[in-house]
Design brief:
Length: about 240
């Protein structure tokens, strides 16, 4: 199914956003991408997103023809709002409230507001974000209710009819690999493993079957566990 429309994909360079890029390229006539620089202590994700963007489009002539402009927006002032593990040298740990110390409060709400402001200017109605509440990392702004509320707030506040798409919302990480395979086959799976980046510590030293990373942080554990289930077979996508 292709909609005669343009989508804006929030592309961080991580596995989930790479899957969203493929999903959008399979459905929309034109796909623009938006990345955010928010004072990460490592720029590896921003390097990865360039590779993911270019190589994903190169998987096929149709996808290449659909890939539109890229936008990188500086939201580095977000880093000043909290001393978190992603934006300073604080150790990654679980806080007393059960949230990882990588949590930047309301980060996705800020990102979606920037995405909508950009989409408004470019007359784009569809916004795609790779949030997921199934393999729940403790980020409340990844929840379906938060995204639905945000869609309503953006539409009321900007007098538009944005549709926020969350193709991964109800998929676990094994199913995300299965979706990547369904969208682009083995080549897309290998591309995502090789070029996307999810590790909280920003490590790209060791190549595991599922990609690069420290192998120990919560993000690496989720990615490795999903890969394991995907490789064992029998992972099914919901209808
Ligand atoms: Zn890691």
């Amino acid at each position: 199914m292709t909609q005669a429309a343009t989508a804006m994909v929030l592309l961080s360079g991580g596995q989930d956003s790479a899957a969203c890029l493929g999903w959008a390229l399979s459905r929309f006539d034109t796909v623009e991408t938006m990345g955010l620089s928010y004072g990460q202590r490592h720029d590896v994700e921003l390097d990865c997103r360039r590779a993911v963007r270019e190589r994903t489009a190169a998987l096929g002539a149709e996808w290449r023809a659909r890939l539109g402009a890229d936008h990188v927006v500086d939201v580095s002032s977000l880093a000043g709002l909290g001393d978190t593990a992603l934006t300073s040298d604080a150790a990654i740990r679980l806080q007393d409230d059960g949230l990882p110390s990588t949590f930047v409060p309301g980060r996705n709400l800020v990102f979606l507001t920037y995405a909508a402001a950009l989409a408004y200017r470019r007359a784009i109605d569809h916004i795609v974000i790779g949030v997921c509440e199934t393999d729940y990392s403790g980020y409340p702004d990844c929840r379906d209710d938060a995204i639905k509320a945000m869609q309503l707030a953006l539409n009321l506040g900007m007098a538009r009819r944005f549709v926020l798409h969350t193709p991964l919302m109800w998929l676990d990480k094994g199913q995300t690999w299965a979706l990547i395979h369904e969208l682009g086959g083995h080549d897309f799976v290998e591309l995502v493993a090789e070029y996307s980046h999810t590790c909280y510590r920003g490590e790209r030293g060791q190549r595991h079957p599922w990609g690069y990373g420290c192998g120990e942080c919560p993000a690496c554990e989720l990615r490795a566990g999903g890969w394991q289930r995907f490789q064992e077979g029998g992972v099914e996508l919901p209808d």
